[in-house]
Amino acid sequence: MTKNQEKLQALSEKLSHYAQKFPILLSFPANVYGIKASSQLQQQATTTTTTTTGLEEGVSHEEPNYTKDNVPLRTSSDFINYRLLDTDIDFISGEPTSLSTLTESLQDFVKDLEKTGCYESVQVILGRQSRALSSNGTSSSISRELDVVLQEKNWYKLYMGGGIKQDFHPAASSSGTGMIPKMQFETSASLINLTGETDVTQLYYSLDQTSTPSLSLHHTRPLYSLLPGSWSDAVLNMDQGSKIGITLKASVDTLDYDTFRSSKDHVQKVSVKVSNSTVGSNSTGHMPGNDGVYSGLEWSLAFRDVIPRRHGTVPFRYDASPEVIAASGPNLKHSLVADYRLNGYLTDDRFNPTAGFDAYGGAEVAGPPGDVGFVKLWGGASVHVPIVPELDTDASKRSGFLKQVFHGLSLHTSIHGGAIKGLDFGGLCYSGGTGRHVTNISDRFHVGGSHQLRGFLPSGIGPRSTGGGASAPGGDSMGGDVFYTASASLSVPFPGNKFLANNGVRLFAFVNSGTLTSFENAVTNVGSFVNSSRTAVGGGVSVGTAIGRLEATYAVPLRYAP
Prior knowledge:
This protein has 12 helices and 23 strands. It is an alpha+beta fold.
């Protein structure tokens, strides 16, 4: 690089640094406009106008086309301004905000609105000058108008297509449900933003490849918009209060556990969920789309019926173990679940990280008026440490073979655990008739499979029946009360293929260990609990995608059972 080029680069950096710190004073509230198509923003009025109200006489400016051809909106302007107040922009003190803070905050504001699914496009435009008036009527400092331009989606949406069914539990990332994803037919009808608060009402129906139907109806909206006067104000006065969402939901579904425990759960459920985002209130916290820190609280009342697998040829006969048949039958579950997740907020990539820290945790309490009682805790953490820095193209060409193979090497460690303890609430909830407060098979942890304990089948470890149905010849998984899994792995960008490496595909080698047992065994004999650990080693390929982490692994179990 020549001296002139160095000078130009240094000057460019200084200008950029100055621009990022440049103070801008925004007027508030923001102006909210509607457009039919994004092309309207390209069309600016060719006429100029002058005004003597709020500006010095004779000052001319172009009037944007979207202000003249404004399309009526369903969205409330108050809602938009509430959302703006929850950004890092200081609208209250009247002090200017730096351009860098302004840019970052408005980008987050736009992303949050787009995630609601109510808009085709959200654009923020600033720059038109306005002069605020002081108390004596004279002009004071110049501020910039803030225009929020919305292209709303239609008020209704009809959908018909296909998808993949995967039943998630709040603790699913650490203690899987034993479910295998299945193809399904999906159809839904939605009412979108009818009240102007990004509210969504949806009726959803699906039919999977085993002809098992599911039906749900939910309504999602910001919490403050559902509460009266002072309650609404109290929510809005909370940090990020306008983003807090609530979902009211009723559903009927059948969860298929035939492959691992020779039974199905038929569930009829009503629930109310509040979370720190409207998107999060309508899904489990770790689902793709819930970016950033998530926290939620859900109340639910569910009527569940554990149905053993029927024999394929003999009528009125079950094809399940005696233990599963004994655990079958209806029950009423009344519970409260609290869940917290970083969702990769402190990592460089949510689904395939190479640096950073991630964690999650949750708790569930079930009791009267339901007939199952328990307290359940789960949590986990992972640490990702880059060991060898990645090389650019020129450095890679000059480096030796080992450096080319191991550049971008990262170490990954994780640990997960959970425990459930049955409660009878003085005899109001089922205790198994043994005085040991037995937990329900549907509430226990089921551990094994990829992303949990590689080298073992889903629900492949822990207490099992001596025999099982035709779909579970090794014995039905009965689940356990206490579990842990731990893993350590090394990963590198995919070697020898620049395209795969540049698109986040990585090779990794791992070792993982874990166990699952009853509460009594874990508490009374810690040594036995640790010694019951299963262990496996192996390698694989992973990539982070918009729908989550995808990986293919080959594992060799070193220890199958205690």
